[in-house]
Specification:
Elements lengths: L2 E19 L2 E15 L4 E6 L12 H16 L10 H6 L6 H19 L3 H4 L6 E3 L2 E3 L5 H14 L4 E4 L6 H11 L5 E4 L9 H6 L8 E2 L7 H8 L6 E3 L6 H10 L4 E4 L1 H4 L2 H14 L3 E3 L6 H11 L22 E2 L9 E3 L10 E2 L1 H7 E8 L1
Parallel strand pairs: 5-6, 6-7, 7-8, 8-9, 9-10, 10-11
Antiparallel strand pairs: 1-2, 1-15, 2-3, 4-13, 12-14
Helix pairs in contact: 1-3, 5-6, 9-11
Bound molecules: 2-succinylbenzoate and magnesium ion.
Length: 373
């Protein structure tokens, strides 16, 4: 395989409703799409999950665009490779950070390789599931009543997990209200997106009484040491998201006992090679993993679904169907969820399993750049 051309496009896609987390709010996604072309003309689409603002990680769509054009693409374009697994080392050498920029290209190479091999992406990476369990991630709402309403209808729609975004002042009482309203069997968890410090341990310990499946990333994005201190004060398992930027951090999490569950987002860890390595490591250590989301379009979602088909993705992921985010997605067919909360892994065709509506993408595009070997 030899990638000879990468076309970058930025599209604007308004969310059906604003999504608010403790560190910021988004109403309209600015999404970077990549179209990779092999020397023989085969094409695969991928998505760079960098956000609009540097509130989740230090990357934004603008930094990722620059890093791909100036540093990532030049290392990959025109280079003959046997397997997409080679890209991680090519992009890691003397090149710090910028995992989402790297992952946009690296994952596209996996999509392209699966297409060329004539295999569905999920099977190409070793995925074994035919369907995956979906959870929903609910942004911070205007009131506990509104949150209860959202959580109740999510469970009625079939979602197998409800993740509730929390922040100081919108935490214990809100979780208590949802638990009270939905009963002891509802699969609930909380995600703080770094909103707390160790001084808040007493508040976070109060959440123990509500039987949450886990609490995601309560403390700073890069702080495994204090997460370990906090984990020892809580019964609820800590799940790390922002902190796990590569296999080394997953290993550190286990060594330090900073958390007991990992949310894998391929963009955050630099792509599929690192995701597979973390998956395999966690499986060996009996650490459950699940697939996180970054409000992806149907293109990024295809990669999330493929990843979540791996055997140690034993907990429901943040992989909602297209209609939860968009009036209309940019792929055919759109992603759907069954009444019992399952998303089918596309296994009938080679590659990512959905077709990009190129005409619609062109209509939504606000900037394009074509990179060649
Ligand atoms: O912390 O998991 C997170 C979205 C943007 C940034 C961070 C997060 C999220 C989500 C969205 O929770 C999950 C989804 O894509 O549905
Ligand atoms: Mg999170």
């Amino acid at each position: 395989m030899r990638i000879d051309q990468i076309t970058l496009r930025e599209i604007r896609l308004p969310l059906k409703e604003p999504f608010r987390i403790s560190s910021g709010e988004v109403t309209e996604r600015r999404i970077m799409l990549l179209e990779l072309r092999d020397r023989d003309g085969a094409v695969a689409w991928s998505e760079c999950v960098a956000g609009e603002a540097p509130n989740y990680s230090s990357e934004t769509i603008n930094t990722a665009w620059m890093m791909i054009t100036q540093w990532v693409a030049p290392r990959v374009l025109g280079v003959a490779i046997e397997h997409p697994g080679e890209l991680h080392a090519m992009l890691d050498r003397d090149f710090r950070g910028h995992n989402m920029a790297k992952a946009g290209v690296e994952m596209g190479a996996w999509g392209l390789a699966a297409t060329l091999a004539g295999e569905p992406l999920a099977r190409f990476i070793g995925g074994t599931r035919t369907e995956i369990a979906a959870g929903i991630s609910l942004g911070i709402q205007s009131s506990p009543e509104r949150l209860i309403e959202k959580a109740r209808s999510a469970l009625a729609e079939g979602y197998r997990k409800v993740k509730i975004k929390i922040e100081p002042g919108r935490d214990v009482a809100w979780i208590a209200a949802v638990r009270e309203a939905l009963g002891p069997d509802a699969h609930l968890m909380a995600d703080a997106n770094n909103a707390y410090t160790l001084d808040d341990a007493p508040t976070l310990a109060k959440l123990d009484q509500y039987g949450l499946m886990m609490i995601e990333q309560p403390l700073a994005h890069d702080d495994l040491v204090r997460h370990a201190e906090l984990q020892h004060m809580l019964d609820t398992p800590i799940c790390l998201d922002e902190s796990i930027t590569g296999l080394d951090k997953a290993q550190d999490m286990v060594s330090l006992d900073s958390g007991r569950i990992i949310n894998i987002k391929a963009g955050r860890v630099g792509g599929f090679s690192a995701s597979l390595a973390i998956h395999d490591f966690c499986q060996a250590k009996r650490i459950p993993v699940w697939c996180g989301g970054m409000l992806e379009s149907g293109v990024g979602r295809a990669y999330n679904v493929a990843l979540a088909s791996l055997p140690n993705f034993t907990l429901p992921g943040d992989v909602s169907p297209s209609a939860r985010y968009w009036a209309q997605d940019i792929v055919t067919p759109e992603w759907t969820m069954s009444a019992d909360g399952l998303v089918r892994v596309p296994l009938d065709s080679p590659g990512i399993g959905v077709t990009v509506d190129v005409g619609r993408v062109e209509a939504l595009t606000v900037r394009t750049e074509v990179l060649r070997a």
